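help with this:

***
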Amino acid sequence: MRRYFLAGIALIAIASIPVSDAQSQPMADFSIFAEANEDSNLVIDHEGWSVILRGIVLNVPPMDRDPERTRPVQTGTRINTSNTTRYRYEGNRVVYHVLNDEYREAITYQREDLEALPDQIGGLSRLNRDEQLAYWFNLYNVAIIEQTMLNYPVRWINRMEADGTDENVFEAKILEVEGQRLSLNDIRHNIVYANWDDPRVMYGFFNGSVGSPELRRSAYTGAGVWQQLDQTAREFVNALRGVEVNDRELRVSEAYDEARVLFPDFETDLRQHLARYANDETAEQLEPGRPVSARVSDWQIADMINGSRRCTGVAGPSTMTSFGFNNAEQTQQTGVVANCATMPTNAAILMSAVQHRRIELLREGRYGEVFTVDLPTLDTSEPGANETDQDEVQDGDQDGTE
């Protein structure tokens, strides 16, 4: 009989635990996280985290491999606050700019609930490896989303400090699991990379930026973690932010360099790994002859408005209705007049790219890659309540994979 433990989403406000100076913290004992019970029947139910993700993550379809070169134009201003990189329309986005208090509280509670769970079950060592791996991915991802939420608006994730500290968000000891104070880098390098000898594990970590492996719209689970990683790997490898070329070198994401320990013979092992997930177009670019350069990056925030509160115009009727909104309808539903506070210019630019790509996929008959788009609102209902029946029409799973 399988026993389930719930990582829940009770909507209560719990203050964040203050983080003390990292120098006063004892060194973590990572060895306690190296043990597992492969005969264990314990299963963690992460549905609560999935409910939150479905409410806060904008589903972006895979873009083609033509770099975005045209600078986004914003009517009425020469000031551009949009992301202008070649990768700016790739990857799912978190709608931080419209998160209401219930979602914010649920995200914090989810992080605290995951931290407390190992003590409730007698330690992570009672779980099998797959359950442990899903646990670490979900804890890492909810923590970076919470930290970004607490710092918002912020544009550059790699420059962000952990809330209440003057330390980098990836280095600060912001988590506590089984009495061990942990940083996000501890989870990634000292726990997961140290105990799972499989390159796919790098794709489970969403670092909050556009250049990251994307955030899924469902939680990782022990039963499905490797299939989920395969799906996330396929999206990333075939995106420009994962792999691109020029005449002289094969350029790949710096995430591969950060996970170099998973590729002992770096260039050879990496090429073999990329070939496993590459589509025909990407595979052509993997041919030998170009040296590998792991320097592709985009640390700008993976949100809809590039961390900017700047409001440069009104998203009028033509814009809003093209995304399925009507000004009068939205005002009636939310009590907020539809303007740039609900669909800022930067968000409208991104949504336009998403909609055009969806149409392209439909016209090409690629039904296995049809994506639905959940438009964010200021609805004050419970997390997940703004989902639509449209989620049921795509051919893949709700993350848009084949």
